[in-house]
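Annex B. Sample input.
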Amino acid sequence: MSTVILGAGIIGTSTAYYLSQSTHTPPSAIHLVEPSPRLFASASGYAAGFLAKDWFSSSVAPLGALSFDLHRQLAEEHNGRDRWGYSRSTGTSLADTGGKRGEDWLRDGNSRAEAAGQHDFVNGDGPAWLTGCGTGNVEVISEGDSTAQRQLDSDPLRLCHFLIEECQARGVHLHQPAKVISISTDMRDNLSSVRIASTTDSTETDIPCTRLIITAGAWSGQVFSNLFPQSKLKLPISSLAGHSLVVRSPRWLSSHEEQGCHAVFTTDAAGYSPEVFSRIGGEIYIAGLNSSSIPLPKLATECQIDGESIETLKTTATRLLGVPGKENDLEVIRTGLCFRPVTNRGTPILGRVPEKHLGSGISTREGGGVWIGAGHGPWGISLSLGTGKCLAEMVEGGKTTADVTGLGLG
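Annex B, continued. Sample output.
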C-alpha cells in the first residue's frame, strides 16, 4: 500500500524512518511531502533538543520512555555524539530566593517544569558557564540516565538531516517544496490518491495513497481541514511561537564537554521563564520567550523574527552567561522563531481519524486510513522517535510498542 506523510519535520521523518524498516512496506511506496522551501525551518530545526525519559503525565509516559530509549539506541548504533551531538545532560533549576521555580513557563503537560517538580531536588553547583547565579538557589532536577541532551549543530537540525538522509537512501520519496491540494477517491469512495503541487513551478502530480499520515506540526489542523472540507472535526491543535538565541561563550568549550551538558530553568525580571541549554559543539541555546498571539505564517520560512524579543533574550543571556563588570564576551551565532504545535489537553494527538470524521461519505479500504501525529508542544524532539515508531506500527495494523491509547482523538 502507498503511504503519504504530510509534513517532513522530525515527526514525519521519524515515521518514514521506522516505516521504511518494515518488511511489509517497501520504502519506494512511502512519500514525504513538505511545502517549505527549506527543510526543518520551524520547531524541528529551532527547538532545544532536550530529551527526558520520565517527565510526562501518565498518558504520555509510555511514549516518553520508549522514545528516550530509541534516541539512545539510535545514537549508539550511528555514533550520535559525533553526528548530532547526543550527550547526557543535567537538569538544573535556578530560582531567586523566595521566587517561583523558573520551569513553570507552561502548564498542564506542556511544561518541562511541572514535570521537573515531580522529582527530588538536591542542592548543587551550576555549570561554570552559568555566571549570573547571584543569590539564587541552584538545584539539580535530575542527572545521569533520566535526561539527555541531543544538541544538533543548530538545534536538532543534524538529527533531522540524518533521519531524512537515511530514508532517502532506502528509497523513500521526498517531494519538496510541494503542498498537497486535494484527495481523490475510487468508485467505492475509498481514499485512493492525493494531488500535490510544486510550490516552485505549480506542476501537479497525483500520488497513489491508501494510507495518509498528517504530521504537519502547527499546520496539521489546516492541512486536515483543507483536505476534508466537509468534515465537522476541527483538530484541537494551535501554535505557540517561541523566539530563541544561540551563543558561544569562552566558558563553554570542547574541553568542558566531557563533563556533560546542562539544562537550566530559571526566571527573569522581564516576566518570562528562560530555558538555557549547553550543547556539544560549544553552543548555548536560550529560549522560553513564548507567545500564542503571533500568527502562524503560511510557510515556516515566512515567519518574521521580532527584534524586541531577541533583545530581551540577549539581555537575559548577558545576565546569566556574562561576567559582571566586564565587556560582554558572548558571540551570537543564530537567532530564531519557531511555532510549536500545542493542544488544549496538553498532550499530543496520536492515532487514527475515525472514518465518520472524514466527511462526505469518504472511507478507506481495508488496511488503509488517515492518521494524525501532532501537538507535541515543547516535547516534539523528545517524543519524536517513539511517535514515529508507533505511527508506523499503527498504519501496518500491528500492536504499538508503547501504550498510546490515551492519545487518540476519541
